[in-house]
Amino acid sequence: MSAVLTQTLEHRVREMTPRVHAIMAQFSELVSAFEDSGAWQGAGMRSCADWLVVHAGFDRHTAESLLRAGHAARELPEIGE
Asked: What would the pLDDT profile of 15-34 be if each residue is shown by its tens digit?
């Protein structure tokens, strides 16, 4: 891979990173509200994390982390910022 292509890829990764983190923060708050609503229950789902694994394609660890982050952001607004 050429040095120019590598630099271009690195630049794009660095450029997109803040947007990806912002979207994931919003998503974690959304899924934690979804968990609290109980709308995930049914069809054999044992937890909202299970629902995220089946319906959103996350692995279990990531699903649980997203839910923890969303709940923490609501309880401690400084974290959300």
From this structure: 999 999 999 999 999 999 99
Q: What's the helix, strand, coil split of the chain in %, to 5?
A: 80, 0, 20
Q: Is 12 left (phi over 0), alpha (psi -120 to 50) or beta?
A: alpha
> pTM for this one?
0.83
Residues, the chain, total?
A: 81
CA-CA-CA-CA torsion sign (62, 63, 64, 69): positive
Specify the pLDDT at position 79. Answer: 63
- Find tokens 């649980």 and name the residue: 64
